[in-house]
Design a protein that fits this description.
Distance between the termini of chain A: 43 Å
Strand content of chain A: 15-25%
Radius of gyration of chain A: 22 Å
Strand order of the largest sheet of chain A: 5-12-11-10-9-6-7-8
CATH topology of the largest domain in chain A: Aspartate Aminotransferase, domain 2
CATH class of the largest domain in chain A: Alpha Beta
Oligomer: homodimer
Chain lengths: 410, 410
């Protein structure tokens, strides 16, 4: 088969056949990350480019035991079709955990099990975004969300992310001037920046949204990975009927099972369930049962403590290497949790040039510009610390520093 | 939480909060099937309403062995993030099986692993359907496809399904008059009708489409469940660059793992991969690995033979009971495979009335009208035979027959 030859917007040609695709496809960015990850499959490369959990912190043996137990005691049911909403005891577990961790009252009826939290974004896009509808996002914003929402052809409005959260003046201004369907954000250890909204900023954002019809989509993929163990409030505490939370087992259990969930007020949940059913009937039921069995038989808090301790140490090593090796003109965030550090190079330095030069030194980093819906960020990098050992972090950051120094001097 | 009070098109109210949903949601039918399945959860009810495989034909022990083996030998990888396209050896297996079963040349690069074949329909909708684009479907047509495509707001054109396949004159007429993006059909043991396109009709349909830009979406969920063991050709044999095939492990392995796939020419596959990545990154990788391990260690042909023999017998029992108990004015299909028989009542008899009366006799059937995109079918029923024992089939059909007789005499 030959490679496709682009012949114009939305059309491709192969063996003479032209295909016409829906306009939305031309608006959906291909994942630059995905292309980079292909480059970094080479085992000689130290990769800070991806967003993978540490494989050493996947509790394989106990997940295997949970799988064996589910299949032995209820295999015929666990392998059969199931309900769109998901396994109710798992939804109850998630609801109970919100109560315990954040003091939030959540009913299992307000929870839908999804294929990782990425699918929540697809379902939210389906339910809320008509072509040309207005959506606000952090700047920089999570690339997966930009991709998921782009399929529904919204008009994006960036809201600058400061060290303590989104700019409240810009958010208020945007909401005043446009009928913004929702503001999407990651209050805890944001991807890509590592920033956590302060407690004050959360209240302020809630106060701004409360006066509007704009919803808050609270992507909480990293909420359990806060290194000091102290959780800041969800916006659901302040504006419950305006907040949709997305959650994930990918960072605390295992990403390969694609287990996530969305929490939404009942009238919204009703629509999300219709969208979910049309999209893929229901999420993998076997994996839902395995996840629940694991959560019943193992202490997830102990496991999360291990993850936190390890990632916290990896972050500390990386930050101290950055402080030691990077030129003073390079800025970087000090994330309270999650998996990423955000690096800002001097304005004259191109992160694409740094990427190219670093790959030659067998170090992969992620240029930050794809995270900017309105362009910019050409001097930024997202650096992952969760998927590299202490030794690789030291070696990789030292090499990266010398690449950056050379670029600064050009 | 109180139940939502509808306040107008696309709006719901709860505790004073109004929500505005995207216009597509108002166009997407809620699943009547889903509502019915809730009614039929009562174990006293004999249900012919669903579309579930026989639980006795899910090979739980060997799937459990495959799961244990994958987790023991490669757990850290099987539980980690993976590629959007899916596990390559599994895609190679699927490609090889097309060669063996249908003589089709398919490259693994043309295969994407999905969450059951339902997700293929969502991805195809994303890639091809812009608002108001034209889509043709069989009449009656698969409800899951109606739901999936509706989210992208097409204009549907029904093409009447005869005993040997879709009406060629109507299809040609539709394609001549509208720029139809694709014609969606299920050539083997269609859901809901049980109809299989004849060999001649397949060639004829391909000939009609070949002269147009219209693609054929060949949903082949039941292709392996043909009771005589003889496969009729895929339209990919005739119009390879115009055919997209969707496949599923749900009917031959286990539906709970939500494993399906889509086969498409490379320029289309490129777009499907972008859509898949935006939708949920990739399908459950653990289940992909389990499925592949199972297929490597077990003989799937032997297993499929068992399924065919059992479903064929269940069909025969049901057909003979229908012949014995149904009034002569009731017509029914004689499917060559799959899981469904399609029943046409006299025009004066309402299948909703039959549904209501049958439930009181602890028998559940599925009224056929939701399968008609343009209304109609009010005297039709879809009857599933794969999920009931011989004894339940006899009891259920006898009870259903007496309900139908009463309705005929009213």
């Amino acid at each position: 088969m030959s490679q496709p030859i682009p012949t114009g917007p939305g059309q491709h040609q192969v063996t003479g056949r032209k295909y016409t695709f829906a306009p939305r496809m031309a608006k959906t960015p291909k994942s630059f990350i995905r292309e980079i990850l292909k480059v970094t499959e080479d085992p000689r490369i130290i990769s800070f480019a991806g967003g993978l959990p540490s494989p050493a912190l996947i509790d394989v043996d106990n997940i295997a035991a949970a799988a064996a137990s589910v299949l032995a005691k209820d295999g015929q049911v666990a392998l059969q079709y199931s309900t769109t909403e998901g396994y109710r005891p798992l939804r109850q577990f998630i609801a109970d955990r919100y109560k315990k961790r954040l003091g939030l009252e959540v009913s299992p009826d307000e929870i839908l099990i999804t294929n990782g939290s990425q699918q929540c974004l697809d379902l939210i896009g389906k339910v809320f975004i008509g072509t040309g509808d207005h959506v606000a996002m952090e700047r920089p914003g999570y690339l997966g969300a930009i991709q998921a929402f782009s399929l529904f052809e919204p008009i994006f409005h960036p809201v600058i992310l400061h060290e303590d959260g989104p700019d409240p003046v810009q958010l208020a201004h945007t909401i005043r001037n446009y009928p913004v369907r929702f503001f999407y954000g990651i209050p805890n250890s944001q991807n890509p920046s590592g920033i956590t909204y302060s407690a004050e900023r959360r209240m302020e954002i809630a106060g701004i949204l409360e006066k509007s019809e704009t919803l808050f989509i609270e992507d909480d993929a990293y909420g359990e990975l806060n290194f000091n163990g102290k959780s800041l409030p969800s916006l659901r505490q302040y504006i419950p009927d305006q907040t949709i939370i997305t959650g994930s087992f990918s960072k605390i259990l295992a990403p390969g099972m694609r287990m996530g969930w969305v929490v939404a007020p009942l009238p919204i949940m009703e629509q999300l369930v219709v969208a979910k059913q049309a999209s893929d009937l229901h999420s993998n039921y076997l994996s839902q049962r395995i996840a629940f069995e694991y959560l019943q038989t193992q202490n997830i808090d102990t496991h999360i403590e291990k993850i936190r301790a390890s990632y916290c140490h990896q972050r500390d090593v990386m930050l101290s290497c950055m402080a030691e090796f990077f030129p003073d003109t390079v800025l970087f965030t000090r994330p309270q949790g999650g998996m990423f550090i955000w690096v800002t190079l001097p304005e004259s330095v191109s992160s694409m040039a740094v990427f190219d030069a670093a790959i030659k030194e067998n170090v992969a980093v992620l240029p930050g510009s794809p995270f900017y819906i309105d362009g910019g960020g050409n001097n930024t990098l997202r650096i992952n610390f969760s998927n590299s050992t202490e030794e690789k972090i030291r070696t990789g950051i030292e090499r990266l520093a010398s690449v950056i120094k050379k670029q600064c001097n050009q």
